[in-house]
């Protein structure tokens, strides 16, 4: 999954994709432990996708907190 694809997703979709990819990663790890999977680099790819999704989610939360913080001092000065 490319970063440009991740940017197009809504926050709810990002959270849903994180959950899906984590479940997929768990299944891949289990399958690889039991018997070698055909393409073990898929584990690395899925792990990196989860990291990309988490990074985007953290970025969005930081932006939301920054917007909330910038709106807060106006009401506090009154």
Strand content: under 5%
> How many distinct helices?
3
Helix content: over 70%
Poorly predicted runs of 5 or more residues: none
Structural class: mainly alpha
Summarize the biggest pleated sheet: none
List how many beta strands DSSP finds: 0
Overview in brief:
This protein is mostly helical and 78 residues long. The chain has three helices and no strands. α2 packs antiparallel against α3.
Protein described:
- The protein has 3 helices and no strands.
- The chain is elongated.
- Helix 2 runs antiparallel to helix 3.
- It is 85% helix and 0% strand.
- The longest helix is centred in the last third of the chain and has 36 residues.
- By secondary structure, it is an all-alpha fold.
Q: What is the strand and helix layout of this fold?
A:
Elements (H helix, E strand, L loop, with lengths): L2 H6 L2 H24 L6 H36 L2
Helix pairs in contact: 2-3
What features would you highlight for this structure?
single chain; 78 residues; mainly alpha
């Amino acid at each position: 999954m490319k970063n440009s694809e991740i940017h197009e997703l809504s926050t709810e979709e990002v959270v849903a994709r994180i959950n899906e990819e984590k479940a997929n990663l768990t299944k891949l790890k289990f399958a690889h432990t039991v018997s070698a999977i055909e393409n073990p680099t898929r584990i690395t790819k899925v792990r990196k996708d989860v990291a990309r999704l988490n990074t985007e989610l953290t970025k969005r939360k930081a932006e939301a907190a920054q917007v909330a913080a910038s709106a807060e001092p106006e009401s506090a000065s009154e």
